[in-house]
Amino acid sequence: MSEKKQNRKTIVWVISGILLAAVIVAVALLAKNSASGEGFQESYEGMGTMVTSTIYADSKKNAEDMSDLCKDEILRLEDQDISWRIKGSDVWKINQYGSASVSPATAQIIKQCLDVAANADGNYDITIGKLSTLWNIGTDKARLPAQSEIDAALPYVDWHKVSVKGNKVTIGNGQFLDLGGIGKGYAADKCAEILKKNGATGAAIAVGGSVVLYGKNPSKADGEWTVGIQDPKRTHNDTCMTFTSGPCFVSTSGDYEKVLKVGGKKYHHILDPRTGYPAVTPLTSVTIVCNNGALSDALATSCFMYGYTQKSLDLLKHYGAEGVFIAKDGTIYTTPGIRQKLTLTASGYRFGK
Known about the structure:
By secondary structure, this protein is α+β, with helices and mostly antiparallel strands. It has 10 helices and 18 strands. Strands 2-3-7-8-11-14-15-16-18 form a 9-stranded mixed β-sheet. Strand 5 and strand 6 form a beta hairpin. Helix 8 runs antiparallel to helix 9. The longest helix has 23 residues. The chain is globular and about 60 Å long.
């Protein structure tokens, strides 16, 4: 057995053969191999989070090979494309030189980010890098910046100054891109491409809080997947509701995912591009379901900052997405297309009108 395979960690949470794709802060994947042994499961670290994967194919060997391909692609995306931290990556080069020729895929994902920014009034903005690196919430370098530091960084946050012409990306003078807000959803997109190309019959892959559900779930007669939404008040192993779905992408943004505590006050990692501080909203989490992983990630951030408002609903309608909004008081609001699919699994929650 290769060293790579020896280092694999198996998924440890298996319950009743139902795959529970935890979309809020990487609630664990639950899976059971089909009777014919066609499934392969593993978990590993990638993009600074835990990746949990179950893939079904015409043979366990093929499923395992696809898992390897997905793992390699997730690591490659971070090393070569979207990480601002890794020297030589596409985003690093853009930040370093102000303009750079990048891979067609990187150019396309940046264009997609700019499209969401335009339709979401800038609630999602990839030029937030100077602010996010000040706070560093979610890392061991997290700190509360001085107001003067925030004031100095804010003028550089403006997605309008980013241009994409062919494969050349140019940013405004002194700007700093941070694609962390869509990175995990984008990785889910790339995994879906691998699954399709290599003939997977079904799969559920969670990259942190973003999940791709592909094909059919062989553990259920109707082939649907069961998705659990994390209870924001409890641990990442606890859900407050579930829903069933066919193939889709699911992402969540929540104020409990990454937190900095200073002087008894909590600061979450979802920064408002206008103020430079964590977004102030009556919500504690937003879960988005749609047909694209990067889009689900960006929309979750945008809708979290909008709150449950007409602007959120209009934005989701524009992209053909569904949303679940959980308020801090436990009230749950949803788009019409997903409401009847939801089942509460914890006390303290109720559906709003």
